Amino acid sequence: MTGAKVQAFPAAAGAADDVLDIRDLSIDFRTPKGPVHALRHVSLAVPRGSIVGLVGESGSGKSTLALAAMGLMQGNAEIIDGSLQFSGIDLRGLSPEAWRAIRGKRISMVFQDPMTSLNPVRSIGQQMMDIQYRDRSAWPAQRRRKAAEILKRVGIPDPERQLNRHPHEFSGGMRQRIAIAMGLLEKPELLIADEPTTALDVTLEAQIIHLLRELRQEFGGSILFISHNLGVIAELCDIVVVLYAGEVVEQGPVREIFHRPKHPYTQALLECDPARIDLISRDLPTIPGDVPNLLQVPPGCVFAPRCPKLFDRCRVEAPTDRAVGPGHAARCHLLDGAGRE
Amino acid sequence: MSAQPSDIPVPVGLAAAGSLLRLLRRLSHDPLGLLGLFLVLVMVFCALFGPWIVPDDPFKIHVAERFNAPSLAHLFGTDSLGRDVFSRVIAGSRIALSVGASSILIAMVLGLILGLTAGYGPRWLDNAFLLLFDSVYSFPTVILGLTVMTLLGASIATLMFVVVVIQTPAYARLIRTATLAAKNAEYVLAIRSLGTSPLRILVVHILPNIIGPLFIIASMDIPSVIALEAGLTYLGMGIPPPAPSWGRILQEGFTAIRDAPWIVLAGGFPLILTTLGFTFLGESLRDLLDPRLRRIV
Lengths: 341, 297
Fold this sequence. Notes:
The structure holds two protein chains of two kinds. By secondary structure, chain A is of the alpha/beta class.
């Protein structure tokens, strides 16, 4: 199965220039009712310098994946299979000290809600100077200047003065800029952005997206961008990975995914774009049904219970990845035999 | 002592040593806080310099002048042995401060360390600490006090030990609960994602967020500790006579309340002022240290 996947995703085929290379990753949550199989055999790669978008509904495992890549999973989560490679480092075998050396320096993360992701009682200057603790030779004044520079870069006016302020004195958009500035302070190779615009309004969302695109060019880092908003993904990302109920059902270059979606789930997701609201009936298109219970993953295709194109084989046999274009693969029985269209 | 967990997550800042001056400047805008600071300073002054400022020897007995009413010669009157009550009240401030404030301070520090460890450490350590806290906490205060005082002998040091043993679990539980709530906050996850070490997260980031309620609780515990001392003294197990503790003055005044009501008043008056002083100061500190409650930036 792994072999087929490696062929399906040339980008993941051990290309030397992948910042993040996740192969066959499976994560369980231990619960009183038994293990919840949150992620199952997930493979994806983030090529250096690119922005990869990870799309999925709530509960599809997006955040679990992000936290696994940061080594910050909850206590009851456990990696049961697969590998996580970051610039050639095996993340699964890292000691807590080795993790701390990487976090914030080579990988950092921006969280969903800027209202809760900054320490309320420390000024942002103190917090940003704290992050630079690794550089023991730097004077406080130098650290302060570095913090001010990056704040200015993310569009905070009058940064020197803002450093003395506390998080509650900033608006949501400003706070997210500050959070991004903190993530980028040490110029990491990989920035994981976990729905960084979900808590913001549309105008701010556009500004943050614009900012991330500029910063990527400037810092040359890669971004793993997690969102449930396809519009944002289309605007920002180079590669899209579609996650459904803990499995990657389709992944490929952004144009391919948006113009030639192969998996019925991806197609349904694109249909559900609120921009496509039916003006006459005022109906918002939805995907009927719910995400399956991951305590007992049904045999066959995970999307089968909700799939409009369901046929007999879907209920009994799990589909494997099929290459459907350059760097584009989907996991659906419909693609069988047809091979590539 | 009676704080509900829901009262706790008021994040509060801890001032760095260098910002003490800034703190005092902010305090000068808060009249109640200033009053509290003044009362506390008066008490500290009396405790430190009591022997030099008392008008009369607090231990000197004048049998001829027993139960004199307050006058210019004896501001608070005299007691059953003719001792000057005002001098005894001032001398008592030293005992009150060492038993009340010092032991509470020791209990605060111990409670902080134990509570943070229990809240942030592994589950088994938390459970072990909880068992310990609850065992001590479930003893009736006075019975525990009487037992320890009987075993170790009545003295100021023993009384302080009793207070530390009784108060530490209460503070540790408060801090533990707040730490548990704080460690799951998203900002802690965000700080961890930036590579900060656990000790630094605990001391620099979590502690300032949860220490505020401890200030309030502890400042209001100081008078109840002084009352405990009075209670134990009343039961004959407090600080032995003739030490002029406020508790002893209250107890002696109580037995003579028909002949000389001013003695009880003289014993209660400093207790009230101390309570007010520490409470005002505690509340003011909490507000001033929390950047979100602060009105003057």
